[in-house]
What does this fold into?
Amino acid sequence: MRYEPNINDPRVRKRIQHAYHYALAHLSCTEETPHSQEALSKRFGQAQTDLSKWLRKQLLICTDHHYSDAAGLSKKYILNEDGVAHIESILGCRSTPAKAVQTLYTEEFKDELATGSFTYKEAANRRWHPIQSLKKTHKHALFYANGYNHEYDIQACAPTLLYQEALKHGLEPQPLIESYLRDRATVRARLANELQTSPEKVKKIINALFGGARVGCGDYFQLFKDLDGDSALIYAIKSNDYLNLLRESIREMWAALPVEDRRKSKLKMALYFELEARVLKAVVQFLRRTKNKHFTEHDGWVCEFMLDEHMLKRHVKETTGFDISVSHVCLRDLCENESDRDGRKVLSGASAWEKYNIY
It folds into this structure.
C-alpha cells in the first residue's frame, strides 16, 4: 500500500515543513553535496520510518552512493525539483533558499542569535558553528534579520600574520611581500593584465602561492584544478618574473617560521590557526568590552554596532603584537543588493588557502 502522509496531523506537517526548509537551504538542483545520515535523520526522521522514507524520496536524489564512516565520507545528493513542487502543493506555500535558511536557523538558534552567545565547537585552534556552513548571501540575510548590521574581515589575514610572525623570528624584510600587502589591488590589476586573466583569479593564484601551491599542469596540482585546467594560465604563472620572485620571498618567510618539519602542511596550518586564534581572541575581547553582540567565523565576524576601527586595531596590537587592517561592509546594503537564487552553491569546509601544501 502506497504511503501518503497525513498533512492534517500537526506533528507530520511540522516534520514536512522542517525537512522542506532544510532541503531548500542546503541542497542545489545542479550541484551535488555530501550529507551524513546523522544530519538527514535529524531533519527527516529515522530512515526506517514511513514519513522519513517519503521525505527522502520527495526531496533527495542520491548522485553518489559511496560512503565511509571511517574516512568521514558521506553520500552525495541534489535537490529533487519535482518532489519539492509536490510538497509545496501539499503545504500550500512556496519558499526560497534564503527564506528557508532564515526560517530553519532562526528557529534552531533563536536564543543564540538574540544574545550573541553562540556555542562553538573548538577544533584545531578554530571555532566552528553550523551557521558557518551556509552560503554567504544566506548568512547575510539571516544575520541582518536578527539585528547584526555590520560585517568585518581581517584583510589578507594569513599572509599578514605569518609574515609579521616571521619577522619576529629573524626574517629579513621582504619588499615584495610588503608591497603586495600594502597595495594588493594594484598588484592584482597589473598581474591580471600580464597573465591575461581577471583580478579575481590573480587573487586566487597569490593566495595559493602563500599557501605553498605547486605550479604545474595535471590533476595532481590543486591550483591547476582550481583554475579550471587552464594550461596557458599555468605556463604564464611559471614564466612571470614577479610571481617567481614572490614565491622565493614566501619560501624565505616559511624558512624563518617555527615549524618543525616544513614538508608537513598540517604543521604549518596549525601555526597559522594558532596566530589567527590569538588575534580573534583579542577581537572578541574588544567586542565584549564594548557590549557589541557578534558572531565570529575564523578571520571575520558580524556584529550589531559599527566599530571604532582605530581602537580595535590598537587593542589587537597591544594584546597580540600584530598590526591588522580590517574591511567593513554594511549588511543592510548587501541584503538590499543581493538577490536570492533558486540553487545553492555550498561552500567547502576548507578555505582556498587551506587546500594547498605549504612550503
Residues 265-289 form the longest helix (25 residues). The beta strands are 33-34, 60-64, 76-79, 121-123, 126-128, 150-154, 294-297, 300-303, 326-330. The first strand starts at residue 33 and ends at 34. Residues 125 and 277 are 6 Å apart (CA to CA).
